[in-house]
């Protein structure tokens, strides 16, 4: 039986939004990174621990918070020394949890899985710029097309540069994973075995496939979203890769 989780009391998230609320909000103060190597190692250990748990066990230890934009979610995780739960853990929760009423109460959410891509057929250049946030593309990925870079929390840092400008930094580039054959269209695909991100060629809808939602006209730098409910019932198989940082949404921490 799944035990009750600690949920921050907030207004109810509208069920038909599905990662699409694009209202701009004021800027937010973000602490500069000050996590020590030991703390990062502890968060990585939590991430691996979650991956080794059954979905039911994972739900017993993670906590859900609602109506936070991604700046606030990162700040909350930093303050509490918490891990933002990655996409692959959420994928197993949504796909394998017997009690489907429980996920419905806490999703949609942002994951701790950061994804970076260019618009279809455009190669990676020196940097990606999205909503005032910059990421410098490592040399080994420049020139690659129709792919995505993936970084899991806490392996990236959000640095406040002032004047509503921010930068994503990755201290160790070995923690950047390349997903080749990242889809150019919003269709059904098989999930990558490690990250549960849709990739490869389009397939028919099934219990094993995932429905990708990405920008087809521009680049993106931000977290994956899961469980975006709309008038179509995807049963948790939708993966949102075009969320706006300033929009309020849920987040799961450990």
Give a summary of the structure in a few sentences.
With 254 residues, the protein is α+β, with helices and mostly antiparallel strands. It has helices spanning 37-51, 55-61, 70-80, 87-96, 101-106, and strands at 63-68, 109-117, 127-130, 133-136, 148-152, 157-162, 165-169, 177-179, 188-191, 198-199, 210-214, 220-226, 238-241, 249-253. The strands form 2 sheets. Strands 1, 2, 5, 8, 9, 10, 11, 12, 13 and 14 form a 10-stranded mixed beta sheet that branches.
Describe the overall structure.
The protein is globular and about 45 Å long. By secondary structure, the chain is α+β, with helices and mostly antiparallel strands. The protein starts with 36 loop residues before the first helix and ends with a strand. The model is unreliable at 1-35 (pLDDT under 50). Strands 1, 2, 5, 8, 9, 10, 11, 12, 13 and 14 form a 10-stranded mixed β-sheet that branches. It has a 4-stranded mixed β-sheet with strand order 3-4-7-6, with no helix packed on it. It has 5 helices and 14 strands. The longest helix has 15 residues, at 37-51.
Annotate the secondary structure layout.
Elements: H1 37-51, H2 55-61, E1 63-68, H3 70-80, H4 87-96, H5 101-106, E2 109-117, E3 127-130, E4 133-136, E5 148-152, E6 157-162, E7 165-169, E8 177-179, E9 188-191, E10 198-199, E11 210-214, E12 220-226, E13 238-241, E14 249-253
Helix pairs in contact: 2-4
């Amino acid at each position: 039986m799944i035990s009750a989780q600690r949920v921050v009391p907030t207004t109810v998230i509208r069920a038909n939004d599905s990662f699409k609320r694009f209202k701009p909000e004021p800027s937010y103060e973000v602490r500069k990174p000050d996590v020590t190597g030991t703390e990062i190692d502890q968060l990585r250990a939590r991430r691996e621990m979650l991956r080794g748990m059954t979905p039911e066990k994972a739900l017993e230890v993670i906590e859900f918070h609602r109506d936070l934009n991604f700046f606030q979610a990162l700040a909350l995780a930093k303050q509490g020394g918490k891990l933002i739960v990655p996409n692959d853990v959420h994928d197993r929760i949504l796909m394998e949890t017997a009690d489907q009423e429980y996920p419905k109460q806490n999703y949609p959410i942002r994951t701790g899985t950061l994804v970076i891509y260019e618009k279809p057929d455009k190669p990676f250049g020196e940097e990606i710029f999205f909503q005032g946030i910059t990421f410098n593309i490592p040399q080994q990925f420049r020139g690659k097309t129709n792919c995505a870079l993936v970084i899991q929390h806490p392996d990236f840092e959000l640095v406040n540069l002032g004047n509503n400008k921010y930068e994503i930094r990755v201290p160790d580039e070995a923690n950047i994973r390349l997903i080749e054959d990242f889809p150019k269209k919003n269709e059904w695909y098989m999930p990558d075995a490690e990250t549960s991100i849709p990739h490869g060629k389009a397939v028919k809808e099934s219990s094993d496939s995932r429905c990708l939602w990405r920008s087809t006209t521009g680049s993106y730098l931000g977290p994956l979203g899961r469980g975006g409910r709309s008038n179509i019932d995807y049963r948790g198989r939708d993966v949102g890769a075009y969320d706006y940082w300033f929009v309020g949404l849920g987040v799961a921490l450990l």
